[in-house]
Q: What sequence folds into this?
């Protein structure tokens, strides 16, 4: 029986410096509905496997060891007092793929990834301790923030559509699955009908899962992948092989200083991308809290920095991961928060909901029938994830721009970022910002959103 | 609401030949994490200088402090409580200066 919370107070915890430790079942109630949601969504997280196989040359069993390790570390957030459903840094993944591809497959590439992920982890920890994250991001011009996100969007599409890339291997499956995915996620027609039908509403809360299920059926039917061979039992991740052959505890020497330095532009770009999640986490939690007077939720972005910084640092040593460790899985945080708003009966504490979700995904990784069911179509799932992320990144990147000059700079910078990598992209952005915005006269700016407002007023 | 105009803001307005400060609430969406699902729109404050234009009163609430007129997007002004403080200040970024604001919360829709 979980400890009871006083009305209007925080969920009980054990104070530990900047952290607030909460054990499941002791400090919060297990939430079955969120657990099931997480269990269903585990297939999405398995999409990391083809990335690790293709870009790092990892065998399947080693890749799944990384997914399982990452899955365990997701639970660190609620354990240490961060009331979120964490995820990857998905928009930065294509940029990281481009970055590591510059190094020779094997030891060198692993070293580059380790150096990057360790740097990102340490940066997040330092910013969490100092609280300087907001200051750093504020110093980056809107044009460059827009350019980084736009560039990640272009890169996401390019990694799938480059000649010889994934689209060429699964053209029909990707076309059908991503078509359905775009309809379910972005179509205004679907938005107009989903709230009127319970089944459609449930479908809309499952994110990319319907696309994955469709791929399991369509891809073998069109002959692009073999039918799955279901195996029963528990997944056996190859932790031994992972640690002895793919980490600094085994066959990979510690990266050189040069690798850390060369990774800095990529670290910076990834941080700019994930910073937006800090803002959305706070906004989602504060919005949910308004509906419930019975729980005070303490969201602290510095604490969040410390936790995902720890995750990246731990993963860099024990399971270097191209997906990186991000502070938020926004879509699932929305699902958890919406259930939270329904009241104490639906979800006693936000910590219970968020934690139970991640327990669910973790359980799913260990169920061999699920893993073997989706194994043949993981490449298609990855392509779908990348294309959907590409769509969102382009949209969000444009929204980051405030003026038409910002947009122009962002477009050029984004294209360079996607084709030449983070260092070139950032340098392009800096040069363009200096050239175009030197001795800036804001009175001569043409604002993008002001134009939109003017159009709205005219329509009204 | 208490509005604080910090040192340097008036000079910034004069330098850029502006008549007022405008704080818009700009729409944003998920920019990180796995966006594979339905997310929510949220609005963050964006501060700029401007000349006064027609129809501004329809979109903004007007405040004044220390002789500086500040127009705040109705989306934000309706969320600001009597006990809240909004501070407009000059932020130095490397060799340039820009306006910034504290005290206006992100709004989720």
A:
């Amino acid at each position: 029986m979980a400890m009871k919370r006083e009305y209007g107070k925080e969920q009980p915890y054990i104070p530990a410096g900047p952290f607030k430790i909460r054990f499941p079942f002791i400090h919060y109630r297990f939430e079955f509905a969120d657990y099931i949601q997480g269990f269903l969504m585990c297939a999405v997280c398995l999409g990391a496997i083809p990335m690790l196989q293709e870009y790092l040359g990892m065998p399947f069993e080693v890749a799944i060891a990384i997914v399982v390790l990452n899955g365990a570390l997701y639970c660190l957030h609620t354990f240490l007092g961060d009331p979120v459903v964490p995820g990857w840094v998905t928009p930065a993944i294509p940029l990281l793929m481009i970055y590591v591809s510059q190094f020779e497959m094997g030891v060198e590439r692993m070293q580059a990834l380790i150096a990057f992920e360790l740097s990102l982890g340490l940066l997040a920890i330092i910013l969490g301790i100092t609280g300087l994250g907001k200051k750093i991001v504020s110093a980056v011009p809107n044009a460059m923030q827009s350019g980084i996100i736009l560039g990640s969007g272009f890169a996401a599409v390019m990694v799938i559509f480059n000649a010889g890339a994934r689209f060429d291997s699964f053209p029909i499956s990707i076309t059908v699955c991503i078509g359905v995915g775009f309809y379910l996620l972005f179509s205004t027609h679907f938005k107009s009908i989903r709230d009127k039908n319970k089944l459609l509403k449930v479908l809309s809360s499952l994110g990319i899962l319907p696309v994955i299920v469709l791929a399991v059926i369509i891809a073998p039917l069109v002959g692009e992948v073999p039918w799955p061979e279901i195996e029963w039992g528990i997944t056996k991740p190859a932790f031994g092989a992972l640690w002895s052959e793919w980490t600094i505890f085994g066959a990979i020497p510690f990266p050189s200083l040069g690798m850390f330095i060369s990774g800095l532009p990529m670290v910076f770009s990834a941080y700019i991308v994930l910073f937006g999640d800090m803002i959305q986490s706070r906004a989602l939690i504060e919005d949910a809290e308004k509906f419930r007077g019975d729980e005070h939720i303490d969201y602290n972005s510095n604490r969040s920095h410390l936790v995902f910084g720890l995750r990246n640092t731990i993963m860099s040593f024990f399971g270097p991961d191209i997906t990186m460790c991000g502070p938020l899985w926004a879509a699932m945080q929305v699902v958890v928060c919406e259930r939270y708003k329904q009241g104490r009966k639906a979800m006693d504490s936000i910590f219970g909901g968020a934690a139970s979700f991640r327990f669910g995904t973790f359980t799913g990784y260990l169920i061999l029938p699920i893993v073997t069911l989706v194994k043949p179509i993981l490449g298609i799932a990855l392509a779908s994830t990348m294309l959907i992320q590409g769509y969102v990144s382009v949209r969000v990147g444009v929204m980051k721009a405030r003026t038409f000059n910002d947009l122009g700079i962002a477009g050029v910078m984004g294209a360079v970022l996607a084709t030449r990598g983070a260092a070139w992209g950032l340098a392009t952005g800096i040069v363009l910002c200096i050239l175009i915005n030197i001795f800036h006269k804001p009175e001569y700016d043409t604002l993008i959103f002001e134009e939109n407002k003017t159009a709205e007023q005219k329509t009204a | 609401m208490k509005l604080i105009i910090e040192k340097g803001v008036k000079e910034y307005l004069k330098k850029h030949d502006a008549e007022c400060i405008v704080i818009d609430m700009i729409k944003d969406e998920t920019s990180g994490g796995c966006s594979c699902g339905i997310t929510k729109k949220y609005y963050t404050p964006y501060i700029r200088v401007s000349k006064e234009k027609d129809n501004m009163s329809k979109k903004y609430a007007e405040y004044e402090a220390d002789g500086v007129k500040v127009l705040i997007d109705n989306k934000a002004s309706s969320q600001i409580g009597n006990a809240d403080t909004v501070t407009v200040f000059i932020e130095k970024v490397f060799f340039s200066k820009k306006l910034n604001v504290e005290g206006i919360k992100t709004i989720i829709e």
User: Anything to note?
Assistant: Chain A has 23 helices and two strands. Chain A touches chain B through 58 residues (CB under 8 Å). The longest strand of chain A covers residues 14-16. The beta strands of chain A are 14-16, 19-21.
